[in-house]
């Protein structure tokens, strides 16, 4: 009888330690990188006042983001997010390289920004309201029954 209980205790202890190890491993931070920023060596290939949009695209590639206005600039963005357990992901690093161009398409300036240079931009969601709010098609048809004037149709 003493032999069975002494065998169960080490097995139970090993199972508890294994489950505790899994719980700790589940809370390990996971990092994910998004985007692309050219290296300093790649940016050294671009000369301010000499290169054009086409030569920049050939040297370091076309960015996934460009300026809102036509012909305004190239923006290369890379973010690093940390996922930790069940919490919301947090941005731990962000780099932005902005290449601005003149009206004629020549490189005017190259700037590099980091997360410490950024600021939070509050987005304002503005939606144009329609005159039909939560009204079904059938309600619209039945609502127009009292507004029908046969005299207006006959005069046309």
Contiguous uncertain segments of 5+ residues? 121-125
The largest sheet is: 5 strands, antiparallel
Element order: H for helix, E for strand: HEHHEEEEHH
Estimate percent helicity.
Answer: 25-40%
Number of strands: 5
What is the distance, rounded to the nearest whole angstrom, between the alpha carbons of the first and last residues? 105 Å
The residue-averaged pLDDT reads 77
Tell me the strand percentage band: 25-35%
Rg value: 31 Å
Number of helices: 5
3D shape: flat
Structural class: alpha+beta
Structural notes for this entry:
There is one protein chain. The chain is of the alpha+beta class and 156 residues long. The protein has 5 helices and 5 strands; from the N terminus they run αβααββββαα. A hairpin with a 5-residue loop joins strand 4 and strand 5.
């Amino acid at each position: 009888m003493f032999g069975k209980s002494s065998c169960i205790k080490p097995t139970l202890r090993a199972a508890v330690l294994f489950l505790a190890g899994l719980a700790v491993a589940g809370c390990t931070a996971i990092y994910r990188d998004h985007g692309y920023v050219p290296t300093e060596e790649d940016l050294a290939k671009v000369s301010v006042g000499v290169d054009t949009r086409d030569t920049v695209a050939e040297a370091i590639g076309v960015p996934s983001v460009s300026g809102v206005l036509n012909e305004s600039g190239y923006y290369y963005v890379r973010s690093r997010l940390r996922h930790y357990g069940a919490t919301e992901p947090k941005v731990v690093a962000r780099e932005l390289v902005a290449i601005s161009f003149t009206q004629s398409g020549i490189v005017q300036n190259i700037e590099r920004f980091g997360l410490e240079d950024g600021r939070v931009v509050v987005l304002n969601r503005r939606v144009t309201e329609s005159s039909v709010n939560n009204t079904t098609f059938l309600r619209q048809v039945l609502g127009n029954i009292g507004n029908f004037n046969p005299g207006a149709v006959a005069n046309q």
